[in-house]
Amino acid sequence: MVQLLPLRRRGATLFVSLSLAEPDATTLVDEIDQLQATVRMVRDLWPFELDAWVVLPDHLHAVLTLPFRDDDLAIRLNTIKARFAARVSKRAMTPSQIAAGGTHLWSAQDKVAPIRSRADMEIFRRQCWTDPVRHGFVGDPHDWPYSSYHRNSRTDPRRAAPDIRASA
């Protein structure tokens, strides 16, 4: 079952979905360099492991693990959203978002699901990899550039060629 913030668990591994307020926006891929820089900056301030992720035009999914002694997921997600909104160029925002200072760039609710087993981990990693296929952006996860699929398939030989292509 999907839970909403705050979900606080020390050392927890979680599946997170963040969405833009406008469902057809392309801001996340248009401003991918800014998003990646923001995530790196937040990881430097409040460490977490980014086990898998995918960025689509209007939402992203991530599997992340918090440090054992730290349970504050909300500070990480809120900082990513605020700093990205501050960094993103005004051309990527609608007039109403510009007028609100970027605060309405993101949807108000973050979706968070705890990962309690290896099976859960594989399900959510696969969701990260297959989401661009499911949304019709590509036919094969390998073709989507904004995903950890490339990193994970290179570093884990068991995942070198999963059969997760779109059906014809």
From TrEMBL:
GO terms for molecular function: sequence-specific DNA binding; transposase activity. Coiled coil: none annotated. This is Transposase IS200-like domain-containing protein. SUPFAM superfamilies: Transposase IS200-like (SSF143422). SMART domains: Y1_Tnp. Gene3D superfamilies: Transposase IS200-like. Residues 9-127 form the Transposase IS200-like domain. It comes from the Bacteria. Residues 153-162 have a biased composition (Basic and acidic residues). GO terms for biological process: DNA transposition. Residues 148-168 are annotated as: Disordered. It comes from Roseovarius atlanticus.
